[in-house]
Design goal:
Length: 458
């Protein structure tokens, strides 16, 4: 083939024998020359096959399935930049449709007077909610001639790591209320020990990451009402509804946790969790526009027209915004209710069956969001841990994490299942079969390695 152009050589060779695919691809330096797009595709595609099966990942809260119409819409809109509202005005309009729908869903007294925005996920949404709490506190303190150098935020010890990041990144003292066997979530118990004049707010979680349990927002608000009556301190609540914000309105509509409670200033949720959208989307909504300080909003003109922006990220995908509006239109209230109820039914079935197995004791039963955790019963004769069970299940493709509980309960290990749309009852029964089989195997053989896996994981 002397004198034959390289592209012709590549195109003639069998797929896995041509240059680029019959050698190991570079990992840490750019390759010196280009390769055919299909060759690059095949290399990346083949490496991605080594990832776990997303549908069997019961550790993540993030959506792993949408239907073909959503996939089609996604492929048509992945080039849109959500921040460029001048170039993509209809994407911006659909963003507004979505947060207005959420304000209404969460019982805002005046959805038209609320304010909200999309984000890359609940972590960013939480940080924006926290920043608004901090800035309002600072502005009030300055108006009163008081110092603003020692803000604190009260939260459960079981908060998601984004709240620890917020406090660290934005110089806010985290005041963590320890959970315990008697108080499994932040419930207002002894809240007055943590709240003072420097408290910018209290975080209430609708679906604790560790276990899936709701924190009783109304009960927390009542405790803050008592504190205000005694001290005059008026402390707002931000509800982290990353998961529960898209569960409770549909299957626990009688539960008061949202803007029905006057002390709730802002709420966030994840569109990419139980909002049923692919990864990359969160939402935050404030009860009224005055609760989002104007000093946090920037105006930029270099994208074509002057536009306000309040976000940590700037450029970000617009496709997920379209997917969220599609999902709201596709499902409507009743469709979401059916999807979330079916997911909850699967979670409660799994919880009941696992509770009936000899070795396990439930921490909670999936009666809040479709998430639950369990512990091992005390048995000195048992030679395995939940880490060992997690390893055995991973061999079958299931990702079911085991981990220690937060401060004051770190000696307690739990295992957790997150049920999402896409895990049906039949597949759940296959998981139960595997749990029974692997637990029986461990009963016969002990730990999966010479030392208990728990020592490795810790």
């Amino acid at each position: 083939m002397s004198g034959t152009p390289l592209r012709d050589v590549i195109s003639l060779n069998p797929l896995f024998a041509r240059p680029g695919e019959n050698t190991s691809a570079p990992r840490y330096t750019l390759p010196p020359d280009p390769m055919l797009p299909e060759t690059a595709y095949q290399i990346v595609h083949d490496e991605a096959m080594l990832d776990g099966n997303a549908r069997l990942n019961l550790a993540t809260f993030v959506s792993t399935w949408m239907d073909r119409w959503a996939d089609r819409l996604y492929s048509e809109s992945y080039d849109k930049n959500a921040i460029d509202k001048d170039e993509y005005p209809q994407t911006a309009a659909m963003e507004t449709y979505c947060w207005r729908m959420l304000a209404d869903l969460w019982h805002s007294p005046d959805p038209a007077g609320a304010i909200g925005c999309s984000t890359t996920g609940s972590s960013e949404a939480c940080m924006l909610g926290g920043l608004a709490l901090k800035r309002r506190w600072q502005e009030r303190r300055r108006a009163e001639g008081k110092p603003t150098d020692r803000p604190n935020l009260v939260m459960s010890s079981a908060v998601q790591v984004c709240w620890e990041k917020f406090c660290d990144y934005f110089d806010v003292e985290p005041r963590r209320v320890p959970i315990s066997l008697d108080h499994k979530v932040l419930d207002g118990w002894e809240l007055d020990r943590y709240v003072d004049e420097n408290t910018i707010g209290v975080v209430a979680i609708m679906g604790v990451t560790y276990t899936g349990m709701y924190e009783p927002v109304a009960q927390i608000a009542a405790a803050l009402d008592d504190i205000q009556a005694k001290t005059g301190l008026d402390v707002p609540i931000h509800v982290d509804g990353a998961s529960g914000g898209m569960i409770a309105p549909f299957i626990q509509p009688e539960l008061a946790w949202d803007f029905r409670i006057a002390r709730v200033a802002s709420i966030n949720t994840s569109g990419h969790k139980y909002g049923l959208v692919y990864p990359g989307l969160g939402w935050v909504v404030w009860r009224s526009a005055d609760l989002l300080p104007q000093s946090l909003i920037f105006k930029v003109s270099y994208l074509g027209g002057e536009m306000p922006t309040f976000a940590i990220n700037f450029s970000r995908p617009g496709a997920q915004v379209l997917l969220q509006y599609w999902a709201f239109l596709r499902f409507g209230f009743e469709g979401y209710r059916q999807v979330q109820q079916a997911t909850a039914d699967v979670a409660r079935h799994l919880a009941a069956e696992i509770a009936a197995m000899g070795p396990f004791e439930l921490w909670n039963d999936a009666s809040d969001i479709p998430v639950f955790a369990w512990m091992l019963k005390d048995d000195p004769a048992r030679a395995w841990t939940l880490y060992d069970l997690s390893d055995r299940l991973r061999m079958k493709g299931w990702q079911v994490p085991a981990y220690p509980m937060p401060a004051d309960l770190t000696g307690l290990t739990v295992q957790r299942i997150v049920v999402r749309n896409g895990l049906g009852m039949d597949l759940a029964d296959r998981l139960l079969d595997d749990i029974r089989t692997q637990a029986a195997y461990l009963d016969r053989t002990g730990a999966t390695s010479g030392e208990s896996a728990s020592a490795f994981h810790h």
